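Supplementary Data S3. Sequence and structure tokens for construct A.
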Amino acid sequence: MTPDTLSNEVYTLHRGTRPLLISLPHVGTLLPDDQKARYVERALAVEDTDWHLDRLYGFARELGASMLVPRHSRYLVDLNRPPENAPMYPGVNNTELCPTRFFTGEPLYRPGQAPDEAEVARRIERYWRPYHAALAGELERLRAAHGHVVLFDGHSIKSELPWLFEGRLWDLNLGTADGRSCAPTLRQALATLLAGQQRYTQVVDGRFKGGHITRQYGRPALGVHAVQLEMCWCCYMEEAAPFAWHDARAAEVQPLLRQLVQTLLDWRP
């Protein structure tokens, strides 16, 4: 382990030298052995993972960005939901702080095995709070060093999930909490970049406007600017099990992602 990497049972944090932190809260795949019996067998394959994003964005570490990567699956606790479990998108189907359903709507747990309040509280303390403490601490370190910091929250999802949204999702979904989580000039720079290419469909503040991390930590007036990118799996991987990395697709989208990360690095308030 290098001196600029912190690792424990909850996360790995690569500490960079530039004012950018990339958070990938849904790439973890582990389920603790003492919890596995609660889940239906299908859940053990953790199909709703944001697969391979630490690999897809690996180049960002070489550019000087920090990167925070959890170890455990969102099926244990969702690091991008508020601890009080308020829905992110009222009026539509949502997944919970400790999800009880697959993205297709079926139950994750065996009958009677969904976590009760005490178990939810235990998971918050053991897994959720350490991740957020690391996230907040790294943002403050970078902000203090550079005068500002950008938080990029990276996500990916299957392109068609009727339980969560109608039709086919845009390939690239930029979220800024309707412009509240970052400076207008940063939002415009990213929107212009995405609109300037024709390979991928894209939208700004559409179905996915940013989850808890983007909304909680994006404080432009305090020098912390947060954006989320929700990307369709088909841009870089296979959408059917075993959810394999696709070399050609990844190679095609990575230059655009590199431009996006470089824009985040170059931007100044």
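Construct B, processed identically:
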Amino acid sequence: MRGNGTDEDAMSERRTRELYYEDGYQTQFSAQVLSCKEERDRDFSVILDQTAFFPEQGGQGADRGVLGGRSVLDVQVQDGVITHHLDGALPVGATVAGTVDWERRYDFMQQHTGEHIVSGLVHHHFGYDNVGFHLSEEETRLDFSGPIGEQDLLRVEEEANRAVWSNLPVLVSCPEPAQLSTLSYRSKLELKKNVRIVEIPGVDRCACCAPHVRSTAEVGIIKLTGVMNYKGGVRLTMVCGLRALKDYRNKQSCGEQISRLLSVRQGEITEGVRALQERLQAAESENQRLSEMLLERQAASVPGPECRRHALLFVESAPQGAMRRLVNTWAGQYRGLAAIFSGNDAEGYRFILGSRTVDCTALAEVLRAQGFRCGGGKGYLQGSAPGSEAKIRAILQEQ
């Protein structure tokens, strides 16, 4: 449904009342459709006179739900205009019912309040700014402007959870400019008016546009799940509330499965993995030794330099290092090429080739014309080759 002229345009100029600011727990509402336009991607953009759907902004994804019987696919805000993207049209001027997906909304509220607690504590202890924030359906990501050590992160995590257990109120206010100028608060932007302040007494005070829980107790639990160095500071990931419970369940399940596979108690998993790693390294060393011995035996079948100009060996598999050492030895003995090909006719071969007499740089051009992929220098090439052993031998015998 497209715009129908000046009446709809005039209606759409009215500012949408932001119900999610008045009550973050409101999930049902009714509203008048001010405009509805079909977009090129076959969804419909709808503007309402009021809405409880929080639009994507401030690093947080938009609410989802149902509006007038249509699925809300996304909600965006630009220049103060809130646009609902639906999977179907709504009649302009009609009053429609909206229902916000509460599970998603409450989950985001838990994560965002938890992020304020962590960011407030980091700012208090280290003076770092939160310079990046992203809240998705999987995790919350926080970027801080300075480094934080492992022990300091454990301290922040514990203090954050103590703030949760203290059941502190989460206060929301919109101070007048005169009052705002007297407040110390965190903000990524230079704000002058219409500033919404979210405060957790003794923990954090921050400018924020998102819905929050009413008390820190509703956050449930805060768990930092990852840390990495990022642009001179650190990037943290975290989960709160039900997400933290699901994360724990998943890790517990993984721990139980690893415990069974290793035949050790869960508390001994680290030692079990270390012992398995040591056995694997020993097995790999033994496999390497046996592979090198096999290659030496296979190399014995190659006619000597008194009989052949080239030394060419085709094997199913061989260690790269052993191939290189043997080729270097042969290159000093044979008048032409020394090459080992590892693989088979069906899947192709990887190879190492050397020579003291043949210009391998020029040879590489010849081989590439035959479908070889290779690189190297004047006396050395390595790469991969398609085709059969017979064809490859024929190509090299001509050199």
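Confidence is low (pLDDT under 50) at residues 1-8. The chain has ten helices and 20 strands.
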